[in-house]
Amino acid sequence: MISLRIMRQDEFPAYRSYFVEDYSREIAENYGHSVELAINLAEAELQSSFPDGPDSKGHELLCLEARVNGATKVVGYLWHSVQADLSSTFIYDFYVFDKYRGQGFGKQAIHALENQLKAAEIHEIKLRVAYYNKRALKLYEQAGFLITGFNMSKKLG
């Protein structure tokens, strides 16, 4: 069984390292930016959303915890931001560490988030997923998410 808890300040540097590496790779691949520019953009995104680390207002950064071999382990991360006026939240980042994939932790985490949101009278979860991320697409579809649009771009020149 998985639980979600607020990330502690001492855990934020590890999240920062993971996020900048992962997101900058996505930025470089999707938009053709240099690695250096992509890293700068990823760092700026994280800094603007979390100027005070996980204690920042407006965004919630969670650790996914599960019992693994008799011990409680952090098995991933979930970053979302509630928009109370719209009774919704947007997931910015959802990651299960590679070594814990395929064990149902992703499905459990989505279910745990849904329960927390329902208790807070939040009625919709939104997110963006890359078209090539088949594993994530499958997880979200199995969890009841519907495709509501497509992001597209075209390079000129």
TrEMBL record:
Q: Which InterPro entries match?
A: Acyl_CoA_acyltransferase (IPR016181), GNAT_dom (IPR000182), MshD_Acetyltransferase (IPR050276)
**Gene3D superfamilies, sorted:** 3.40.630.30
State one molecular function term (GO): acyltransferase activity, transferring groups other than amino-acyl groups
Domain (N-acetyltransferase): give its ranges.
2-157
User: Where does the secretion signal sit in this chain?
Assistant: none
What UniProt keywords are attached to this protein's entry? Transferase
What protein does this entry describe? RimJ/RimL family protein N-acetyltransferase
Species in which this protein is naturally found? Reinekea marinisedimentorum
